[in-house]
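Field reference: sequence -> structure
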Amino acid sequence: MVVKRDGRKETFERSKLMRGLLTATVKRNVHIDVLESLISSIESELRDRGIAEISSQDLGMMVLQRLVDIDKVAYVRFASVYRDFKDVDEFSEELRSLV
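Structure field:
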């Protein structure tokens, strides 16, 4: 289960996470097998740790930790949605942290 910011709980949907990753990797040279592997590694980690519920924030952080090593542009795209930057300064700070 994924616990959303407003407290609602949703069933984890691999396809929903894949859609977000595909959006972040549009026109990037990231093969879909790499994204499948990223999602599988998250699922395995959660299973191994015995986690039945995870906050959407923690799930997003798990994605970002893996995505930064795959493609930094995709990382920034995913982070811009996940972190919901309020202004250009927040976005710029995220970019600076990558350099």
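Note: The first strand starts at residue 2 and ends at 3.
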